[in-house]
Amino acid sequence: MNLKRELIESIDGRIFVGVLCFIAIMILVGWIAINEAARMTAFEGQYLARSIERGATMFNTNCSTCHGIDGRGLTGRAPALNSPYLFGFNYLADVDRQIAALQTEAANSATTDARKAEIETETAALNAERDAIIASLQPAVDKGYNPEEPSRLKNLGWGGTLRSFVETTIISGRPPSESYWPQPMAAWSQTAGGPLRMDQIEDLTNYILNWNIGDAWTVEDANAVNQFPIVPVDPSTVVSSDVQTIGVNTEMPTIMENLATVTGDPQNGQVMYNGALACAGCHMTAAVAPLMEGTMTRVTDIRLQQPENAGMTAEEFLATSITHPNAYVTPGYPASVMPQNFADRLTYQDLADLIAFLETQDQPLPPQ
Ligand code: HEC
Ligand code: HEC
Q1: Ligand 1 centre from 85 Cα, in Å?
Q2: CA–CA separation, 355 vs 66, rounded Å?
Q3: Ligand 2 contact via 346 beta carbon (within 6 Å)
Q4: What pLDDT digit, counting tens, does each position of 58-89 carry?
Q5: Contact at 8 Å (CB) between 273 and 353?
Q6: Contact call for residues 75 and 280 (beta carbons, < 8 A)
Q7: CA–CA separation, 103 vs 119, rounded Å?
Q8: How far away, in angstroms, is 147 Cα from ligand 1 center?
Q9: Distance between CA atoms of 121 and 125, rounded to whole angstroms?
Q10: By mean pLDDT, which of 187-196, 256-265, 274-283, 295-304 is the weakest?
Q11: Please, is 272 exposed, middle or buried when counting C-beta atoms within 10 Å of its C-beta (0-12, 13-18, 19+)?
Q12: Atom 9, ligand 1: which residue's CA is nearest?
């Protein structure tokens, strides 16, 4: 019998090594337990990063044709998702908070008259700052953005989270958007007949939400948006009894007579054209409707030269096109696609504003 085969000969030595090993194991287990939370967070971070990466690839192949490679939307095609508006960033929040605080102070009976006078000056300065912020956002305002109503979700009355808004939009699409965009937002999930699995939709959602930069949104970000969402106008909600709209049954001579009493504001016309009235939704894609660019040139050089429009002014042609679209149907386009009820939705001032805007579209026409 070979009694020398053990590594450690004495029984005391063996007990000592055993105890040492036990302590080492306990320290190791303790160390892992302490670091588990950090390891899990790091793991989740990696998981999210990979999901965002997969989402980015899918976005480029499936969504960028309408929403733009950078997610800033494509004019006349689909709204921006990489936009302070989707994430509800309020450029005026900070200054509004300060103004409200001053007002509270002024309303307090303990505030002295001297302090009240100071508050008035401070409020005036803050209001000037507020106006300057709005002015700096003018390019976005021209595209239909309203700094006073900065949240897409609030404006839609969406009660849920942004994540659920994005996810459900991708899952089931927005079939009704067909009526105010050249092509609607389709349903993408397999459960709704689309091509994408739920995990892929999750990746896309993570990618879109990753555009949120919290408080770091800049004025440039808003101004870089190519297209803001269009709010389709429901005539029953906008026409209040004290607003006198033109009315679809009003004849052209009467319309022209009343139109002569108002002066159009092209800026406001542009805002309505791109925003509330959603004219741009159709008129920015030549396949859907005659392009907005060059409208005025086309009217004077082509439309008014046609015998059926002889003797018409450009203003009359435009007013007719908007209030009685089927009276003259642009060659190459179908009748009755352009909504027939704008006269019920517009006041004379609105119509004058729209015409004033369209009259600025006098770019040379592209060669046919
Ligand atoms: C054919 C063009 C088109 C494609 C392709 C498209 N979309 Fe859209 N999408 C739209 C339009 C148009 C809207 C606006 C719908 C509306 O106004 O209700 C929209 C709206 C959205 C919205 C809601 C934005 C908002 O403010 O209401 C999300 C989110 C969205 N799309 C995500 C995607 C994703 C993700 C993909 C790719 C899987 C995609 N879209 C592909 C046209 C498109
Ligand atoms: C649903 C799509 C759609 C919307 C929304 C729409 N249009 Fe049109 N529009 C058309 C189509 C299609 C035509 C060409 C056929 C026709 O003459 O009706 C047209 C024709 C016109 C023309 C004549 C252009 C030319 O070169 O002959 C003008 C002007 C016009 N639209 C202005 C507007 C204005 C202003 C608005 C918003 C108040 C608007 N459209 C909203 C589809 C639309």
Answers
A1: 15
A2: 29
A3: no
A4: 999 999 999 999 999 998 899 999 999 999 99
A5: no
A6: yes
A7: 8
A8: 22
A9: 6
A10: 274-283
A11: buried
A12: 185
